Amino acid sequence: MIKIQILLLVLLIIISCNQKKEITNINDNNQHPKLILTARGVQDIRSKLGTIPIFDNSLQKVKEEVDAEIDLGIDIPIPKDYSGGYTHSRHKQNWFILQKAGVLYQILDDEKYAKYVKNMLMKYEEMYKTLPLHPKTRSYARGKLFWQCLNDSNWLVYVSQAYDCIYNYLTEEERNKLETNLFRPFADHISIDSPQFYQRVHNHSTWGNAAVGMIGLVMDDEDLIKRALYGIEGKEMDKTAKDDDGGFINKDGKAGFLANIEEPFSPDGYYNEGPYYQRYAMYPFLIFGEALHNVKPELKIFEYKDGVLLKSINALLNLSDADGDFFPLNDGQKGMSYYTGSLVTAVDISYKYGNADSGLLSIAKKQNRVLLDDSGLAVALGIKEGKTQPFQKKSINLSDGPNGKQGGVGILRNEDIELVFKYASQGSSHGHYDKLSFSLYENGEELIQDYGLARFVNIEQKGGGNYLKENKTWAKQTIAHNTVTQNETSHYQGKYEIGSQNHPDLHYFSSEDENVQVVSSKVANTYKGTDLLRTMALIKDKDFEKPFVLDIMRVESNTFNQYDFPFYFFGQVLDTNFEYKTSEILKPLGKKNGYQHLFIEASGKAIAGNSKFSWFNNNKFYTLTSLTNKIDDLIFTRIGANDPEFNLRRDPALILRRKDSKNTTFISALESHGSYSPVTESAFNSKSSIRELKVELDSQEYTAISITSIKGNTTLFITSNKKASKEAKHTITINGKHYSWTGAYYYK
Amino acid sequence: MIKIQILLLVLLIIISCNQKKEITNINDNNQHPKLILTARGVQDIRSKLGTIPIFDNSLQKVKEEVDAEIDLGIDIPIPKDYSGGYTHSRHKQNWFILQKAGVLYQILDDEKYAKYVKNMLMKYEEMYKTLPLHPKTRSYARGKLFWQCLNDSNWLVYVSQAYDCIYNYLTEEERNKLETNLFRPFADHISIDSPQFYQRVHNHSTWGNAAVGMIGLVMDDEDLIKRALYGIEGKEMDKTAKDDDGGFINKDGKAGFLANIEEPFSPDGYYNEGPYYQRYAMYPFLIFGEALHNVKPELKIFEYKDGVLLKSINALLNLSDADGDFFPLNDGQKGMSYYTGSLVTAVDISYKYGNADSGLLSIAKKQNRVLLDDSGLAVALGIKEGKTQPFQKKSINLSDGPNGKQGGVGILRNEDIELVFKYASQGSSHGHYDKLSFSLYENGEELIQDYGLARFVNIEQKGGGNYLKENKTWAKQTIAHNTVTQNETSHYQGKYEIGSQNHPDLHYFSSEDENVQVVSSKVANTYKGTDLLRTMALIKDKDFEKPFVLDIMRVESNTFNQYDFPFYFFGQVLDTNFEYKTSEILKPLGKKNGYQHLFIEASGKAIAGNSKFSWFNNNKFYTLTSLTNKIDDLIFTRIGANDPEFNLRRDPALILRRKDSKNTTFISALESHGSYSPVTESAFNSKSSIRELKVELDSQEYTAISITSIKGNTTLFITSNKKASKEAKHTITINGKHYSWTGAYYYK
């Protein structure tokens, strides 16, 4: 007996020693795969296959997709098209399939995938070694496989992963061939040969950096890795040069992956171009982050800048509506959502390398797929183990700027209503001139819209899928947004140089009291001599069916101006309490700065007191109540004038126009209320709950608005226009009545 | 033992005798309830409660609703408002609650419901006996509780059921009081006092007939029952008088419930006003039908006119899109669907009194409620017993006219595409002037829309919820529809008198070959001297992603005319192969007949050959290919001109205009293709699959169109313009090639 026990013990020791050895081996940084998949991760995954539904399903889908492509055969066409065209789409499809096939080889241990990757890479090698610049000339930085270096970089970010997966499958000779003729020249083209693309702080460059860095990590090439992290050594850029979008290429000389983390992300994780481009940039940030974490753990990339990469994921998820669609701040195409691939990456990486937030699992469940790597495995296991919790989006204030000192975005949420208040900085070349603008959502539906961009991404028929000229002439202009335009001119004269040197400042943000949430910001210099202070409150009151918005826009100017204040509603005019006359023929509202794109559908004169406008959309009712003077104009407009190729949507707005004014305050309330059923043909709560909005006080120090409901109850909202700290004590007298409170605002 | 057995036998006989007696009793027509609920039905229901989920849930919801109303207390306001106003809504709510409370009393045997019904009826009695005409004067037949007799009739149809349910609960004295002061004068007001409403063939009158008949059945009043079935005895109407909508009140002297079945329903069950009004009329037809079936089974009402009442339910269900929304032919508000209450009635009654079609159970399941009566019980049991089958909508041709000889509606369905071709007769006062028009749907989404009506039913802010004047000036006009308008004048000069004396005729309908389905119809006299023949085919071909539409509209005229041929698409212009110029200022297309409501957004000249237009909507792509001449105009329009109260939607169209032509043929193909994902930002199959459409022959006898696909394959569609029988043999030679076939068309 004892002999047998000893024998077993010895055996056990031998086995465990072998395991230890293997573990040591697979942690070795020269072992492949090491970049995203790791040798140990592959072992874990293989051991759990068949028991982790969301992972198994993701794997199955990828397998079906790749198998279908393998059956179709390899096609490496000579590059010739813009986005949306065949050669563009084909090479794009190839990069995805290469990456996926590489993963399948590792997880399924089936040589056919390695062979497929190898064959395709060899064909790329054959073509690339003599490939000239892409024939299309529109880009400021032309690629070779694609019309712009950006897409070449996309390719390399994915293909690096494929190469890593089959690295050990290739002979040294094969590797040398690929590295010499394909990967190194490829990395050089998008970096050294294209510094105007590579050597800057911009989402394009982030892709470039990640591409160079990831292939560098696979090839164990310290030069490339350094070039990725810190930019091209010794390269000085022309500080005045601009790119296609009008943005400076490199005004302050910063470059490289770390600078690209440093600059565009605020400490809260807000990305200065806005969520649409953050979503796009997310993939290279995180996938290269994960690669660095795996291969260069000593860099502690996920702790860099106080952990901003992971924070940015939380910020981005909060910049989406109830359906997960990102708010289209700046250039953003509507419909982009957290269902996009890069957000699968983001959610999985955030779960694995962050604090395993169980709310993320609910998003992963909705996404219904996971990464086929260690992080996806972690998420799949979390879900399998029943850890899923709802992801709770709350009101949040996200500062903008590298130090969080350049304005921000405030989101107020209550029940189904989401108010998005943008007081951010210019947002780089993708920024719009819309300081202190807002948009309003209800349960994922736009009530007051931000136009988004003027582009049909990858729809070839519309300008090759690229930015349309109306993006500049319309979408970026101030009048295209829900904020004030002075004298028919955009903020900062619509000039990037001025815009990027200025920004609004937070006045205060308060979401402690769920029933009265407020965000307030001020900005100078949008117009010389004019200061704006906008305070927006989301108020839940017993006399109202749903939370409503109170909007106070104070304008102080030392000159007489015309102010236009639009509300881009959706749907059909239902009712107004003011007279208006529709136009017999429709003429543009103006000649430039976006005004040339608006038709005047109707004009009216406001009434002294409360001008009310209600509308109807998707079987729901809405009312805008605005404090107006008799001389104010109310103009119904529709987008679409001077639009020779039907590039713009025919969306309506109501513009409140106040002429010949110095200081003025726009005060409005916005209500969503009631519903209509076309099946029962019954309307419920189709009218406003506000009997009267009234200014009780409007001074440099305080603005006080009373709101009397239809039921006859009156509440008072006072905002402090100067002292706004949580601790500040205020005592004022309005109409003989004393009010005292602590904090920036009062509501009762 | 034997003694005991005998004893048991005797007992059994006694019990069975008692049961027999009870059954006899409860079939007695003087037993209440007898109208919709029956005494025996109530017994059955009570015995099954708690075991029939959909019924139990429906009951629970009704109970919660009624209990909440009982808690609120009874309110019988003095009538003063139009639809959408408080008193209107309140009395409407009362009729529903009364009916439901009556049912609850029967099923739950709880006196509180009987008491509630009694109390409310007594209050109505108190008010009604001195109530003058409703103060609002807009109706051609004013009611007392409501502004129009129609709504008073609605009230009585429901309240008769409530009265029946508590009949036995009331004392004779109470019944006398109610019948003398409320029910009989109420029935008289809507009939004898309002013959212009009652004594006609119209959906309004059907409600009136049913109201009078149902209270007559409850009260066992043969006079009222006869008046319901056959109209007011001896009443002669002015044959030239018209109602508010411009329809004749009673041109041919017919009246009463049976005439209302006889006239508007075709033998196929198509209702001449269209599905929206059929849905509305359905309730009184079927509920009074059910009542007659229960109380006067000798009438065999469900076998009347070859069982047309039950056939009409099948027709109506087939007149809905994939979501169950009815096609908005004539005046129809979009969004009305088979989820509406009257369709719950229709589906349940059809199941119970028809042939227990298990497909109906799937609709009942979607409706998620059943009637709380014998028919609802039957459906609930059917579902419980697992009999549910999908309701398969197929291509269907529905004849119009009392004898099925006045045109019709043809619906072609293949995969997700539904083509609705309207060649129906005028459709009574709710008809539109759109002979040979069409609309196109894909999986419940409108691709080419019919505008529907210009009305916001029960939305008080829009003209009291009633028809807007734009219904006449726009929605009814020919140019508002997808058919040909000659010389900017509507069909039949837009005159009801002419329209109602003419109608198109079916040329042929063929759906035997699922891959090539065709409907063809001709009409004379829409314009004097002009004949139209339109042939529309829904073709599934291997070179196309989805079934596409081939449209051949032949116009023969003895004068030179201008023809306008619009396509009311949705969404955004993507691409054209013809040049166009957008308008700097938008002007109306014309001055009258609907043209005054169209803005010209852009104009272009067609090219000789195929003019192609593609558009983009809800992330899908569409292409129209039209055979054009160089002199044809292509005009992009948008609805909304001369619309002083924003009553019209701002929807676009492309109008093909052909000037100075006598005979001409419009030939077009419509494709739905591809998709776009804003999440992956990728476009799939965004271009047309048609390389060329070509006329190979166009004679009085035949039109032959060749369709060459992008893949280079050519098919030929030949339609016979004269002989169209299934048996007809054809032999022709086109371009030297011989074609022989049997039947109306050829496709290969």
TrEMBL record, chains A, B:
<dbReference type="InterPro" id="IPR008929">
    <property type="entry name" value="Chondroitin_lyas"/>
</dbReference>
<feature type="domain" description="Heparinase II/III-like C-terminal">
    <location>
        <begin position="400"/>
        <end position="573"/>
    </location>
</feature>
<keyword id="KW-0456">Lyase</keyword>
<dbReference type="GO" id="GO:0042597">
    <property type="term" value="C:periplasmic space"/>
</dbReference>
<keyword id="KW-0732">Signal</keyword>
<dbReference type="Pfam" id="PF07940">
    <property type="entry name" value="Hepar_II_III_C"/>
</dbReference>
<protein>
    <submittedName>
        <fullName>Heparinase</fullName>
    </submittedName>
</protein>
<dbReference type="InterPro" id="IPR012480">
    <property type="entry name" value="Hepar_II_III_C"/>
</dbReference>
<dbReference type="Pfam" id="PF05426">
    <property type="entry name" value="Alginate_lyase"/>
</dbReference>
<keyword id="KW-0574">Periplasm</keyword>
<feature type="domain" description="Alginate lyase">
    <location>
        <begin position="101"/>
        <end position="323"/>
    </location>
</feature>
<dbReference type="InterPro" id="IPR008397">
    <property type="entry name" value="Alginate_lyase_dom"/>
</dbReference>
<dbReference type="GO" id="GO:0016829">
    <property type="term" value="F:lyase activity"/>
</dbReference>
